[in-house]
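Researcher: I'd like a structural prediction for the single chain below. Treat it as a standalone chain; there are no partners to consider.
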Amino acid sequence: MITRYEVPVLLKATIPDLQQTCMPAKASLEIYVAMNSFTDLTRHAVEDHNMNLAKRCFTLAEKLYREGDSLVKLLIENCFVYSFSLFMPKDRHEMLIVESMIPASLYNLYVKQVSASGC
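Model: Treating it as a single chain, here is the predicted structure.
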């Protein structure tokens, strides 16, 4: 099981672009900063059409969701997956490309969130 303390290290090791992220002095806050940075990086990758990086981010997010402890899963659901609407392309063709990169488990969470909100 991946714990909240392992996530920042795993993110930085897997996604080198996150190496420059400033982390707070308190280890208990590090997971929140890391998850926000990871979410922002994924959004920028999609917006910049860097599909290789976006795919790596989505794959890592699925691993964190599948193997993470309860806080890690909660943050993937409420921070990472919740942000999909912010960066989902408006163009139908581009949207299909992005949707095809999102693992089914995360995409199902996204659909569930959108359906629950009435959007």
